[in-house]
Amino acid sequence: MGRLSNADTFMRVICYTVLFISMGSFVLATQGTFDATSLDAYLRQAQSANPEVHASMARYRAALQRVPQAASLPDPMLQVTHFIESVQTRTGPQENIIMLSQRLPWFGKLDTKEQIAVTEAEVLWNAYQSKRLKIARQVATDYFDYGFVGKAIALTRENLGWLTKLEPIIEEKVRGGGDINPLLRIKVEQGKVADKLASLEQQKQIVSARLRSLLAVGGKDILPLPELERPEALSPDAAILIQAVRRNNPRLLMTAGKVKSAELRQKLAGLASYPDFTVGFNYIQIGDPEVNPNTPDAGSDPWGVTASMNIPLWFDKNEATRAEATAGIRAEKNTYADQLNVLEAEIHSSLARLDDANRRLQLYGDELLGLAEQAADNSRVSYESGRTGILEVIDSERSLLDLQLLSWQAAADAWKQRVILETLANLSLDEDMSPEVQNE
Q1: Rounded to an integer, what distance in angstroms lies between the CA atom of residue 229 and that of residue 37?
Q2: Are the beta carbons of 130 and 254 closer than 8 angstroms?
Q3: Cα dihedral angle (248, 254, 257, 261), rounded to 10 degrees?
Q4: Which stretches of the chain score pLDDT less than 50?
Q5: Phi-psi domain of 425 (left: phi exceeds 0; alpha: psi -120 through 50; beta: other)
Q6: CA distance 322 to 314
Q7: pTM, to two decimals
Q8: Which domains does the chain carry?
Q9: Which tens digit of pLDDT belongs to each residue from 201-255?
Q10: What is the DSSP string of 209-244?
Q11: Which residues contact 133 (CB under 8 A, 6 or more apart)?
């Protein structure tokens, strides 16, 4: 079985995923053949195959195509008038009029529209980055849950195996005239442990199905179980993380982009009070003069140029447009402030959970677990020599299993909180948490 990658592997994979996707250099099976067990492979597969990620990228690419549209002039207008009954003029009958015109927006309108389109494309780029981090976070947290399920199955199966080995010893004592109650107790305990093992097997199928969905892997086969390891204790600095959130978090950058877009829309609303111009060219086709053929310029086709402008006369409409843009700015700024508060709260909550996981990991792994193992060994030896009863053995075994599961649950929780912090701050806790790095 594979081993969990360090935290820096997680962010390294996230940083290089776009390169893999754009170059088409990383292809994984999506028809039920995914058999990797490393976090690295899981993250690569999710980023390269997950439909949500591809949909988010498609929306960004669509937004890019709106930039040249916003920067372009309106389409010119061509108008052709054909007289069913010709208008007779001094120089001859008018047969056709051809008009070509082009609308020219007021200075700055096109540039502002282009800037809005660029800003909205940047918003969708950050939405894409946010989606990638969200999927990576879901994959990584499920991955560590899956690793814990694997450990829990192995430990529970080991505990059930020991209880099964203990049964013949008890049966021998019963055949020798001993009390039958210990045999009944051991069978009850075997049933309870077997039930726990069956529940864990079902949990394995549930987490595997969830991971298959995130990885976009077809089929119904159970994914191989990864091997969970205990992480080193880590206590990141909250101030540095919050600083990184302000600088790197795509959700926050997306909202900041919306604020900028709203400010540009306010600028465009101000320009709505200025007129647009239309310039044009007219050409009139004159037929053969029949009434006054000797008239000067008879039969000549006249032409001319035109210029016009609209009059932004409806002041209430323009004022409402500006008021709408101003309210939009306030809304986006308040959204930004709220989102920053939420992200900071998530940072503090995750740090508290990480500290708790580290505490439990130290308590169970370094202190209580060793004592429980020693107590279980002593109980086994004492029972086999007749110095203690079966209830003490069962209690010791149950306590040992519970502490083992609590210890590995703490390890999985610590890994998951590290992932959550890394995706919130969009940086690697192993590489970027020192004040020296932050000040560079």
Answers
A1: 13
A2: yes
A3: 180
A4: 1-32, 432, 434-440
A5: alpha
A6: 13
A7: 0.83
A8: 7-49+119-274+314-438 (1.20.1600.10)
A9: 999 999 999 999 999 997 788 999 999 999 988 889 999 999 999 999 999 999 9
A10: HHHHHHHT--S-PPPPPPBP-PPPP----HHHHHHH
A11: 14, 250, 423, 426
